[in-house]
Design brief:
226 residues, Rossmann fold, 6-stranded parallel beta sheet, 11% strand, globular
Length: 226
């Protein structure tokens, strides 16, 4: 079973981060040893322009190169991933997409209706490339801007409603979709390092959201254990 991580800055991580992808890899190693592969065209972390850093400098240097693969980018959202997901799925033959997108779209590029249209375009392209591909989609998670910008908070809430509707509309027996659940315990002070990007405890909670959806709905893997 081939897994493809798709996401924005919260998924790619910065140089020195563990990332929730790493936490998910550790989970897959425990529950599906030898029965999975992580795929994707990229493998690095984000290094801000003009700063010193190594995109290969994960917090655990023992994170194996094949497990670092992904399709994530700092500042990239549904808008950016919809045009490239088809070719990526075709090239990697991904079976399951684990997708965390939306915050960057709503913050900088598109409103909730436009973002939802890009979700549908993304899923159409992925299914065209590989008709049986599955996907687990994470709603926009809590973030600091929503705490002081009521209009942005409303857009996040509305998009999450539209995302749930899209998942319900497009779910199909031969290409099932899941909506992961944002942990109720997710706390910006404890689980992020800047009000948006996950720290270690937040990484575990995001990985657990995907692992729980896979296990509970499709019987893939097992319960998440930090």
């Amino acid at each position: 079973m081939r897994f493809l991580f798709v996401g924005d800055s919260m998924t790619i991580g910065r140089a020195g981060d563990w990332t929730w992808r790493y936490r998910m890899w550790r989970h897959l190693e425990r529950v599906l040893p030898g029965g999975y592969e992580i795929v994707g065209p990229r493998d690095g972390l984000y290094v801000p322009e003009g700063e010193a850093g190594d995109p290969r400098a994960y917090a655990d240097p023992g994170f194996p190169a094949p497990a670092r693969r992904h399709l994530a980018g700092w500042g990239e959202g549904w808008l950016h991933m919809a045009p490239v997901i088809g070719e990526t799925v075709a090239a990697t033959r991904a079976d399951v997409l684990l997708v965390s997108l939306g915050l960057i779209d709503l913050g900088f590029y598109t409103d909730s209706d436009q973002t939802e249209a890009n979700v549908r375009a993304f899923l159409t392209a992925a299914r065209t490339a590989r008709p049986g591909v599955r996907a687990v989609l994470l709603p926009v998670i809590p973030n600091v801007r929503a705490g002081y910008d009521p209009a942005f908070a409303a857009e996040c809430a509305r998009f999450n409603e539209l995302l749930a509707k899209a998942v319900a509309d497009l779910d199909a027996p031969d290409a099932p979709l899941l909506l992961a659940t944002v942990p109720e315990s997710y706390d910006l002070r404890e689980d992020t390092y800047d009000g948006t990007h996950p720290g270690p405890s937040g990484e575990h909670k995001l990985a657990a959201a995907f692992a729980g959806a896979l296990h509970q709905a499709w019987g893939i893997g097992g319960p998440y254990e930090p």
